[in-house]
Amino acid sequence: MLHKMLEERLQQAVASVLPGADVRSVLVRPCPDAKFGDYQSNALMALAKERKMNPRQLAIDVVAKLEVGDICEKTEIAGAGFLNFRIKPSAIAGVLQGALRGEHLFFQKTDHPRDIIIDFSSPNVAKPMHVGHIRSTILGDSLARVLRLLGHRVITDNHIGDWGTQFGMLIFGWKIERFFVNDPALLPDPIAELERVYKMVSQACDGKEESMTQLRQKFSYEPGLDLSSIQPEEVRSRARAELVKLQAGDSQNLDIWNRLQAISKTQFDRVYSRLGVRFDYVLGEGFYNPWLKEVVAELRDRGIAVESEGAIVVSSDGSVPQQQDPFLTQKEGKWVSNPALVQKSDGGFNYATTDLATLQFRWRGGHWGGEPDEIVYVTDARQQLHFRQVFAAFCRWHPEAKARLAHVWFGSILGEDGRPLKTRSGETVKLEDLLDEAEERAFEMVTRKIGEKEQTMSEEQRRDIARIVGLGAIKYADLSQNRQTDYLFSWEKMLSMQGNTAPYLQYAYTRVRSIFRKGNVEGGLGQTGDSLSLEASEEIALAKQLLNFGIVLEAVADDYRPNFLCAYLYDLSGHFARFYESCPVLKSEGAHRVSRLALCDLTARVIKQGLDALGIDTTEQM
RNA sequence: GCGCUCGUAGCUCAGUUGGAUAGAGCAACUGCCUUCUAAGCAGUGGGUCGUGGGUUCGAUUCCCGCCGGGCGCACCA
Fold it and tell me: Can you give the pLDDT at residue A181?
């Protein structure tokens, strides 16, 4: 908040010293080390460099024009031309009082709200959600929350995998299993049953003997189909035939397809409800099916897509340097085409086609009637080339599109062995099992800690805390790391009370709340009108940290990196812990007590708001 | 082969337009509970930021070469 004012005034001062300079690059940032001051700007050095000026002289000239006496002490010029600002305690108290009056919580809503579509999670129908979906889901949800908090209009859209070749196999499997609506075989765990059937058919397609044997004992659902002697090749063609029928609108296959959707929706709803994730739209790949033919036709008409080896492909138009061209690759020293397929040689479409149709739908305002300012895709790193190709093809197709297209990618989740996370038996880890285990481990920990403190708490209460702590731990472990690095999954680390973890932050929150409970002083703080007295270094450091909440939220929004917010909240909690050690709250009196209660209140509010922006709950007691 | 990406303390990771003496947690060691939750705090030790060049007043950050890991590269999504 204060840094914005400093920044504006500094920009004015620079503009008057260097008319015509682009002052947007003149930024004010928190100091890396408190000994230099509270905020700094190193932009003058860059400006001086561009103009071959003496940076210190420029700094002296700018400071002479700078009027910030109401906010900070004398501006210092250090080193090669750093400007260091030290905020006056009175200015800090002023901002804190604004927050106590409910005018703000150390951030401002944006002056330029953007319409932003965020595409994330994207699980597959008829399959269990697994650990591979967690990063996209959690990251996307958090980004949506942060952007909304800053006043942007966000549409979340879950682009589920409800279409494609696997449905041919699923429908074939459904038929030979003679499933019907509310089939008992599907009741206890329908997703697991569908997964079994899918595996059986897909492995039979690959010629696996065991699966072939199983399959040969199933029901031949139509004349001319003799399962007892069926060969892998026929399984493949049968599955393909079922897919073609589905795509042609066959009513029985559509019926089965709808049934698969319904079964999956139950699972998705269950998982998202546990995670506290909400979507404005769930428009699966199938939704875009009616447009695919037209997409390819248009691309061909405009010469963007051409036939190659029986397929329809988009390849390079030579508009960018070869090295940067997503449609080129080098083989044996020569640049060769590396096209994106939009139609297979058998006439089927693939995911580039669907993504282009989806992009067009979103760009044309299918969700709310207007062109969005930004469309964000949250997927894993492996899809980088795909999205570069899709974005490039789209820009050629609709050059007039202004929406910013962003691929927010993230690394893999690895097990403790450094290999992609798997269960002991080598299976992918199911998301629901992961959440169960998090809650179970958190429950054991809560129970143990409560026991150590010789306190009592009902099981229901402990379960409730464990749910909040366990899910928070999983989410926070993911969000607190730079999304682009692969991340090593460790129960021990994420549930640890030490370090940058959810339980540490949640615990810090309960310590604040406990003061208010003990002191019975809830509410009414904002109305006292008393001036705040910030004297102890721990009080001042905590207050200054509160001031920077907004800077961090904006950084998260600009770079799509929730880990900045995690680092900030960890720092804040550390400042609070130090304050808590050395500044008794309830035992202090007068202005000290008022000020300290105010710091506690604001700290709690920022932690709660910050965790909420990460999709993490807090609890009053731990 | 080409492309993307990573390489920072023993381990797991941060590192905000290039900026000041590269940070945190774990692990090791030392203190602090008649005091608002010690699930905490304070402190000590630990680094050729893979490597070699270049640009710069200044490089973990930008550029180039090399070494090592991960991933991707035509009909799966």
Answer: 67
Tell me the CA–C1' distance in angstroms for A336 and B5. Answer: 23
Q: Cβ of A400 < 7 Å from strand B?
A: no
- Residues 230-249 of chain A sitting with CB below 7 angstroms of strand B: none
What percentage of residues in chain A have a pLDDT greater than 70?
98
Q: Report the distance from CA of residue A194 to the C1' of nucleotide B54 in Å, as an integer.
A: 59
Q: Where in chain A is the domain with CATH 3.40.50.620?
A: 113-160+276-410
Q: Where in chain A is the domain with CATH 3.30.1360.70?
A: 2-87
Spacing of A48 CA from B49 C1' in Å? 29
User: In Å, what is the separation between the CA of A380 and the C1' of B73?
Assistant: 16
pLDDT score at A528: 54
Q: In this structure, which CATH number among 3.90.1710.10, 3.40.50.150, 3.30.1360.70, 3.90.1640.30 belongs to the domain A2-87?
A: 3.30.1360.70
Mean of the pLDDT values across residues A8-37?
A: 91
The DSSP letter of residue A398 is -
Average pLDDT over all residues of chain A: 92
pLDDT for res A552:
96
Q: How far is CA A261 from CA A160, A191, A286, A445, A515, in A?
A: 10, 11, 11, 38, 50
**pLDDT tens track for A349-359:** 999 999 999 99
CATH 3.90.180.10 fits A113-160+276-410, yes or no: no
Residue nearest to nucleotide B25 (CA to C1'): A499
pLDDT tens figures, A221-256: 988 899 999 999 999 999 999 988 988 889 999 999
CATH of A431-613, one of 1.10.730.10, 3.40.225.10, 1.10.4100.10, 3.30.2130.10: 1.10.730.10
Nearest 5°: phi and psi at A408?
Answer: -95, 100
Tokens of A82: 């750093």
A53 C-beta neighbours (distance < 10 Å), count: 16
Q: Which segments of chain A belong to CATH 1.10.730.10? A: 431-613
How long is chain A? 622
**What is the arithmetic mean of pLDDT over A71-79?**
92
- Which burial class, exposed, middle or buried, applies to A221 when counting CB atoms under 10 A from its CB (0-12, 13-18, 19+)? middle
- Chain A 466-495 residues whose Cβ is under 7 Å from strand B: 469, 481-482, 484-488, 490, 493
A450 burial class (0-12, 13-18, 19+ CB within 10 angstroms)? middle
Convert the pLDDT of each residue in A463-478 to its tens digit.
999 999 999 999 999 9
